[in-house]
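Thanks for the sequence, V.! I ran DDE Tnp4 domain-containing protein right away. Repeating your input here for the record:
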Amino acid sequence: MVEGGLLKVLYQHFLSGMAIKLNHRGVVFGRERSDALNYFLLTIKKSTVLQEIMTTAQSLSRLHWTYLHQLQKTSKKSIILLVHATFQRQLLQPIDEFFLFLVFLSVSLKERDLAHRFNIHQSTVSRIIATWTSFLATALGSQCIWLTREEVQAYLPEEFKDFSDTQMILDCTELRCQTPSSPLLQSEMYSSYKSHCTMKTLVGIAPHGPVTFISNLYAGSVSDKELFKQSGIAEKLTEDMAVMVDKGFLITDCCKCKVYCPPFLSKQKQMPAYQVKETQAIARLRVHVERVIRRIKQNKLFDSIITMSHVYNINQLFAVACMLSNYQNTALVKKWVK
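Predicted structure:
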């Protein structure tokens, strides 16, 4: 085993921007890396939370090995064979399993491809992905991403001075998925906007960039208003807060807070000048959430058609990707408004 794990070796090569080929245990990587994987490799050593997650993973791995060692001392042949088989599957260090999970998330390699590159069985790849999905969803989910009004105000960008009570910017996004065999499910999941079967989710960000709310994924046919109701976000918003949304969010009757939404033309032939300026101002600021969603979808798993085999844990996978985006180095708040 290379000292420090495969991640350490790959990390150095990613930093230098070199195309690499590792023959160690048959692992081969070239330039199919994504920006999402690059930024996370650059961030992992700088985040206290991520370091704690890796420390916990190492501890759990040692506990697992200790338990197996105790089982191996028994005289039952069946248990010994089970232990031997489990040891054969434990070829990767936790840091390398973590890297495998990131490659799956960021590059969207198939499990068979990952099994070949890491020289392990395909069922082991499935187990690693399922384990790390649950582990990261639990570990990152234990960190409260919702910000209080005072915390949002403390980091409010200057560009929001005309909308100073904005608590979050909301937008929906859709993930294309494999068409189910059931006609009923097809009709529920079909999105007229994407002309494909999709799963729809609501993402909320604070004005200065971090993701502060992630809803579950729903069938693609659900409306933005209904998704807002079912997500539970309305319960978190108070009268002294405001949300910024697109025209499709007709939610003024669903929440207590103020809603900043571009005005409709209605029966007017032309908008008044003040409404035009308001529309432009909201549009320039609302694009902020679209940039965050675009960053999340740099993980190619969500930019391709999601197979039914991953539907069972897609909520956790998407939540993990959203929470990992909060650890990206590059600040979203730029002078793009000007």
